[in-house]
Amino acid sequence: MAKRPTELAYWVDERPPPLPLLLLSLQHFALVTIFLVVAVTIARMAHLDAEAGSRLVSLTMVAGGIATILQCLGRGGVGSGYMVPATTTTILLPPAAVALQQGGLPLLFGMSAFAGLVAMALSRVIHRLRPLFPTEIAGFVVFMIGLTVMILAVRQLLGMGGAQGEYAHYAALGLPVLAIIVGLNVWGGRTLRLYCSLIGVALGYGLGLAEGWISEADLRTLAAADPFEVPVPGGWGLAFDAELMLPFLITGLAMALNSVGAVTAAQKANDAEWKRPDMANIGRGIFADGLSNLLAALLGGVGQAATSGAVGLSAATGATSRYIGFGVGALLIALSFSPKVATALLIMPPPVIGAALMTSGCFLVMNGVQVISSRMLDSRKIFVLGIALAFGLARLVDPQFFNLLPRWMQPWVGSPLTVAVVLVVALNGVLRIGTAKRSRVRLDLSQLAPERLSEVLTEQGQIWAAEPETIYRVRFALQEVFELLIQHDMVLEEAGGSRYVDLQTRFDEFTFTVTVAYAGIPLTVTTARPTEDEILESEDGARRLASFLIGRVANQVRTGLRNGRCELTLAFTA
């Protein structure tokens, strides 16, 4: 059962009061609508007029609202049940450009529906792929998502990629807004921390207006926008092209991996004692994302994906209640009926967008680092993570090189996130070859060096990426076992004075099991705590205490005889 983190004001199943719920929902609504720029980009790529473009954005908001509610609801095998809002994603842009060129919006919507079906199918087998997504890989996915968000944030904040003389103009707005958000989060107390991003964005609009970021033309467009208009679903139709199956199959896979990272981040944010991803829960989250893409295509909106940025923001503000997600979904659907609201969101100054994204990106990156560092890593794992990170950053540093790759490879290398995540999963699968989940070593108690046992366990812990705390518990218990065997001459002496003990270890991601096998006197382990008098006055007091400590630190203890040899098996929950 999950343990409530102390820093949270509203936990996953806690319902905030009406006013805080509304304000927190507005805060996340402002964040997720930032990504509607993807829908705007697709509208421009499709050469839609203003009316059709506004309709596309509105229907995308409807799809996002439905997707967010499904994800947060977590019922009937659909949705993770965590506050993981949905929004449009840049993952879709590379194949969307090809689909629009070859068949317009009908082909894009048809192939987006196919990508959604791919994600839905993958969700049903993701739990069987658990070896490909161990804890450190899930942490890396969260890290790369956070890094991608922060890269986008810095570009928006400082105007990178634009005219060189504009940097100061961008910084003059973006840095004060970022300072306001960070200051309120750190020093503003519980209430202001909850709404730090919303306050920062609101002040950003005011500063942007004063500094000329919002032009008179923008204000005229806003004034001319209709306050209410019902978006009519569909109308563009659906088409299918077998030649585009591979790019959109990869897109479905990339969206599923994005969901793995987002839901993993949400799980960790809601459990103070989080240890590993719950793959069954992640599978339900992926299914919700896939279903949302299918529904978006049928409605005539742009495909949806879980947004880790909102997960990072919820961790930053200390409010992870899924009821906030219901509020976000309701706002997306309700405000999709107002072109004026969509217009107001689309004129948000880029530096303000960058400041809001930076806040969530920071927490995502550090969450990923914490997850990765919670595991012991051997050279294989280090190569897997390091090479994937290097190629992901290379996609950022020299995108032109990747743009020159063959067309069929473009969906695989469409973004730093896609490059890094696809590569880390592939490398993990390849370098797992030859890694046994069982080991066996024979130790001679007559000449056992104290550090030898520690070396054996540390080496296995690194190979299997076990938690350091688990290895510490195993080492403590085995040291007590070996001391008892040595001090009480419980292992028979063989020719030459040797006293051999076979140490077998086994790891399955959930349990670290060790078996000590030897010829000699059986060792009994008890869970009954010896009294102080029994420890101090009984000749057997030290043995009773050691036996109790072994049974206490291990989660499960079994003793028995096999082929005339004594066996002691200790199981530790990893």
UniProtKB/TrEMBL annotation:
> Is Transport there in the keyword field?
yes
Which Pfam family is one of those matched by this entry?
Answer: Xan_ur_permease
Q: What is its main location?
A: membrane
InterPro entries from the UniProt entry: NCS2
Molecular function (GO) terms for this protein are: xanthine transmembrane transporter activity
Offer a single GO CC term for the protein. plasma membrane
Keyword annotations from UniProtKB, A to Z: Membrane, Plasmid, Transmembrane, Transmembrane helix, Transport
Bilayer-crossing regions: 21-46, 52-70, 107-125, 137-155, 167-187, 194-214, 244-266, 323-346, 352-369, 381-397, 409-431
Q: Where does it live in the cell?
A: Membrane
**In its keyword annotation, does this UniProt entry include Membrane?**
yes
Q: Which intervals of the chain form a coiled coil?
A: none
What family does the entry list? Belongs to the nucleobase:cation symporter-2 (NCS2) (TC 2.A.40) family.
Q: What PANTHER family does UniProt report for this protein, alphabetically?
A: PURINE PERMEASE C1399.01C-RELATED (PTHR42810)
The identity of this protein, by name, is: Xanthine permease
Q: What is the lineage of its organism?
A: Bacteria, Pseudomonadati, Pseudomonadota, Alphaproteobacteria, Rhodospirillales
